[in-house]
Amino acid sequence: MLKTQEKTIYLGVEQEMLAKRLSFIKPSPTLAMSAKAAQMKARGIDIINLSAGEPDFDTPDFIKQAATAAMAKGMTKYTAVDGMPALKKAIQQKFLRDNQLSYEPEQLMVSTGGKQVIFNALMATIEQGDEVIIPAPYWVSYPDMTALFGGKPVFVECIEANGFKLTPSQLDEVITPKTKWLILNSPSNPTGELYSKEELMALGEVLLKHPHVYVMSDDIYEYLVYDEKPFYTIASLVPGLRSRILVVNGVSKSYSMTGWRIGYGAGPKELIKAMTMLQSQSTSNACSIAQAATIDALSSDLGFLKAWKTEFAARRDFFHAEINKIEGLSARKASGAFYLYINCSGIIGKITPQGSTIESDNDFTTYLLEHANIAAVSGAAFGLSPYFRISYATSKEILSQAIRRIAAAVAELT
């Protein structure tokens, strides 16, 4: 860093040329940890990366074949900003089939991943000082996106005893005249917890009393639910809220298409119109080839997912049982997604072999990375400590190695 009389130059960039709004956000902690793990691995260090939020299974062949066929047909040009008509029709059919929800094409849009849907929605609606209720623990990007547009994240601590889920009384207490959005994510990243039908309906009863509050239902892990538990979206359970609910979904997680970058949103026409206008001035349409492949993905019978879910559930059961055998660590058995949110309160205050004190979950994940070559993400990144998140979207063999390393590292603490 070089200092002059009038300005600071950092990494060759004059800070005075950068917008002040950048001070409101930070790089994604989960992506940062994955990048650090990749860098260490590139240096020849045997890193086990449990920080990545993506399935380890390959995209199903029939989806890849659909992309190849699309290219052969010349489907390599611009599409409508809000998505191909054929894809929007497939999305309509998906909502009718799986969620008993009916949407017109003007109520749907396709973006480059679910993240862009959320980004577009918040940019289109938030005014300076508007409040967004974000249950904690939360996906790391919700608060940063809110702050970027001048909004105020309102965090509600959702304790482990309540399944890390927002209660109706908590919701009622934090709604103010400035509240613009409530963001709900089920199954949850980072906890894997699933809201029941009754829990969502109870939240809906609170929201019906506050007609100025919009609801963003992030359903990206919809199909990754275990133990025969049903998935519900609040949009289908509380019809009185339909005019102010934005449903966010996509193919990244359930179809193992993280790199294809296709997400979609369903909501009020005027909101979708505004989001589309913004997208027309940013990315324009999502990749035409990925859109074409997604038509086949959404129209499939999801038969491939049965084997994936069986494997995910087995990995979850294994890691959950083993982590609870390690003194100082404990975890709930998640109902969905592919994460465990592990309580490490029993580790806080312990001393490392190097003589340092573990004072936080950040310290503990740093210790695991440097001492055990395990990459995990601290609970601080998700707004609730002392916890850390691991992804079990990797093989049983690797998870077994990870457990042995974590157990050995914890055993060396005094």
Explain what the structure shows.
There is one protein chain. This protein has helices at residues 29-42, 61-72, 85-99, 114-125, 141-148, 168-174, 197-208, 234-237, 269-280, 288-299, 303-323, 361-372, 396-411; strands spanning 2-3, 8-10, 13-14, 48-49, 108-111, 131-136, 152-157, 179-185, 214-218, 245-250, 263-266, 330-331, 339-343, 374-375, 377-378, 387-391. The protein is an alpha/beta fold. It folds into two domains: 2-58 and 304-411, Aspartate Aminotransferase, domain 1; 75-299, Aspartate Aminotransferase, domain 2. The chain has a seven-stranded mixed β-sheet, sandwiched between helices. The protein has a four-stranded antiparallel β-sheet with strand order 12-13-16-15. β8 (179-185), α7 (197-208) and β9 (214-218) form a beta-alpha-beta unit. The protein starts with a strand and ends with a helix.
Please identify the structural class as seen in this structure. alpha/beta
Within the largest sheet, what's the order of strands? 5-11-10-9-8-6-7
Instruction: Show unreliable segments.
Output: 1-6
Query: How large is the radius of gyration?
Result: 22 Å
By DSSP, the count of extended strands is 16
Instruction: Compute the number of helices.
Output: 13
Query: What can be said about the biggest beta sheet?
Result: 7 strands, mixed
Which range does the strand content fall in?
15-25%
Reported by name, the CATH topology of the largest domain is: Aspartate Aminotransferase, domain 2
Distance between the termini: 39 Å
Mean pLDDT: 94
CATH architectural label of the largest domain:
3-Layer(aba) Sandwich
Number of domains: 2
Task: State the CATH superfamily name of the largest domain.
Answer: Type I PLP-dependent aspartate aminotransferase-like (Major domain)
The CATH C-level name of the largest domain is Alpha Beta
